[in-house]
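Reply to thread "Modeling small-molecule complexes from scratch"

Following up on the discussion above, here's a worked example others can learn from. I took a protein sequence and the SMILES for adenosine-5'-triphosphate and predicted the complex. Inputs first:
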Amino acid sequence: MDSKDNKKTEETHQVHKNSHFVQAFGHAIAGIGELLVRERNMRFHIFAACVVLIVGIYVDLGRSDWLWISVAVFTVISAEFLNTVVEAIVDLIVGEKYHPLAKVAKDVASGGVLAAVAFAIIVGILIFQPYLLPNLQMIFR
Ligand SMILES: Nc1ncnc2c1ncn2[C@@H]1O[C@H](COP(=O)(O)OP(=O)(O)OP(=O)(O)O)[C@@H](O)[C@H]1O
């Protein structure tokens, strides 16, 4: 993109600070939409969270169980946000070129998502095990 194209883009797209809350809110919602469109993993996390929500309602989880599940879900979602930000910044800086530090940044960011998912699985097992184990034993007896 040459400087003329750049100037044209800056005229038609916002590149300055948000002037009011509604504008900032709109961009934040657009960011969430972008994440859902770009990241297949994010769509899977949302699907998994919906399944947990339905099963949680079915087994009538208590207040503190819902609190732990909320922490687990938002930890995974936050890690995915961070991962997408890192990917976008790395791609902006290095483009299609290979760089060992780009690899470190992207691998560490996706490692963060993996760690968050492991945490969510542990929380899920600890919370659902007392409800699901008796049912599973009944099925396999
Ligand atoms: N510019 C680069 N230089 C070096 N390695 C890179 C570069 N771009 C990507 N990689 C390597 O390819 C992997 C996948 O990168 P990509 O940007 O496609 O992420 P992705 O498949 O969307 O990952 P995720 O599943 O975490 O969202 C990275 O984890 C990294 O190891």
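What I'd highlight from this example: The CA atoms of residues 45 and 77 lie 7 Å apart. The helical segments are 3-12, 21-38, 40-58, 63-94, 100-140. Questions welcome below.
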